[in-house]
C-alpha cells in the first residue's frame, strides 16, 4: 500500500503546478500567511520576534515567534499536567539550513522523494517561526502518530492556535505528504475554524 501511495504522489508531482508561478513573500504580517510550494520567503527573511522555547518542552536551541512560543509552552504545560509529554524537536529553520536539508534528501533519496518529504529553500514553513515538529518523550517524531500524545494534540492543538498542517489525503492541496508531527500556529480563532471544518490552511485562505 505504501508503495502504491508513493507512486500516486510521484504522478501528482509530475502533473501538478507545484513550484510553478511562485509568489515571493517579502514582509508577512498576519499569522495565517501561506508558505508552500507556490509561495516562498526571501533568503534573508528572519522573523523579528524569535524567542527560545523553554527546554522543559523542547530540545535545546529551538526558536519560535513570541506569540507562537507562548502558545506552545502553554499547550505543552497543560498537556504535561494531564500526563502527556509534548516535545518540540524542530522549530525555526534558516534559509541556509533548509537548503542543506533539501539537498541532503536529493542526494540520499532522489529528487522526487525530496519534493515529497521536504521543501526547497524558502518554501519551508519552518522559516516563518510559526511551525513546529513535535514528538513525545521518545523524541521519535516518525512514530508520533502511534502515541497518546498525538491523539491529544489532534483533538486539542487548535485550542492553543495550532493546526495539523499536513493532514492525510491532502497532498494535492498542501504539496506535502501526511506529517502527523507538524503543526502550524495561526491563532486560536483561525485554528478553530480550520479544525471545525476539517480543512487545510490553503482551503481556508481560498474561501475567506
Can you describe this structure?
The protein has 208 residues and is α+β, with helices and mostly antiparallel strands. The chain has one domain: Muramoyl-pentapeptide Carboxypeptidase, domain 2 (2-Layer Sandwich). The protein contains 8 helices and 8 strands; from the N terminus they run H-E-E-E-E-H-E-H-H-E-H-E-H-E-H-H. Strands 5-6-8-7 form a 4-stranded antiparallel β-sheet. It has a two-stranded parallel ribbon with strand order 1-2. Strands 3-4 form a two-stranded antiparallel ribbon. Helix 3 crosses helix 4.
Tell me the layout of helices and strands.
Layout: H1 2-15, E1 23-25, E2 39-41, E3 50-52, E4 63-65, H2 66-81, E5 87-90, H3 95-109, H4 111-117, E6 131-135, H5 148-156, E7 162-166, H6 171-174, E8 179-185, H7 188-197, H8 201-207
Parallel strand pairs: 1-2
Antiparallel strand pairs: 3-4, 5-6, 6-8, 7-8
Describe this protein with a few key phrases.
208 residues, alpha+beta, Muramoyl-pentapeptide Carboxypeptidase, domain 2, 4-stranded antiparallel sheet
What is the class in the CATH system? Alpha Beta
Q: State the share of residues found in helices, binned by percent.
A: 25-40%
- Indicate the overall shape: globular
Number of separate helices: 8
Distance between the termini: 36 Å
- What about the largest sheet? 4 strands, antiparallel
**Average pLDDT over all residues:** 92
The fraction of residues in strands falls at 15-25%
Spatially, the strands of the biggest sheet line up as: 5-6-8-7
CATH topology label: Muramoyl-pentapeptide Carboxypeptidase, domain 2
Low-confidence stretches: none
**CATH architecture type:** 2-Layer Sandwich
